[in-house]
Give the backbone structure.
Amino acid sequence: MLLTPTTRDKLKRAAWAAVPSAVVGVLSLAAFAWYRGWPDPTSLGKDLNRSAWESSFTERGLPVPASGPRDGYWGARIGPKVADPRLGWHEPAVSIPGLMDIDARGWQRYVSAAESKSGVVIFGGSVAFGTYASSISTTYFHVLGTELERRSTPADVTVVAGGAWKAIQEIRALAVYGDELKPDVIVFLNGLNDLTNGASSRTLFGQRVATLDGSEWTPEYHAHDYDQRVADYLMIMGRAAELGAKLGSEMLIVLQPSLAERAGRTRIEELLLAGSLKHHDSGDALTRSYEAMRRSLRERAASGGFHFLDCSHIFDQERATTFTDLWHFSDIGHAILGRTMAREIAIMLESRSRRRGRREGEEQ
């Protein structure tokens, strides 16, 4: 779909109109001034994080990859974020053969060798980025790309994601880059950052605020405004669907896996969750909020505005450690997520291809 400059301007303005002005106002370098890397994991314990990642292999009788997570523990191989006046920040360009191939805009890609192929673009935070996989080939998006090939629905997969991004940054990225990418399918792999990151629903990660109780602000401070976070997230996703429709794209919202949702957590995962909940009301507050998101997304998807895939519980059948913290997981989780997403996206691409074929037949 070719968009005129006027249409592009309208889409960009629509992205800003997608949220209250107070939300838009936080997309500034104020957050970036503090935010130099991944969220600080010290409250969980670095040793515990490392042990969980390694246990996800050893408990399954698998060798632990010697290089560790491809991005390094706590993003050590990535380095400082790049300030972006439109998005707040994005990942820096990094090229490490077999581990990371991030371009100057923070994008990553799976490129299909097929002659005829579709385009899939994925927006999100660090999970969408593919953190804590051991290599490029074990990221969920590489698994997704290879699975789409196997299902005879090949596609180039572009990942536009940044560590700690929230939905407001993701919809802005869609508005800025959507007409350039011209995707057949737009995917938002998100949900958990909007419940956990930033002092409130309307602040970004690392943005200093006055605390409600007068305590000293820390990056982990949380105002416990769960209802507002759910409402803002759902509103932004609704506006994202409108932008996607203007681009002529199908849209899929994937509610990401969450350790708080996982049934049958292992001992180490229980310790991880306890550390993660330190700044929250309770685990119930997170699960209630996720249920509200899930229920509303499912209802809205039924009306045909977008597709919805609930991946919040996809690790429940796993008996071994899978998560490395509240958000992230190693190769095993990436493989499950990539295959699960591929099944849904393949159906969407097949349906889109059939509709295109019928239209072309009618025009002849």
In short: The longest helix spans residues 331-363.
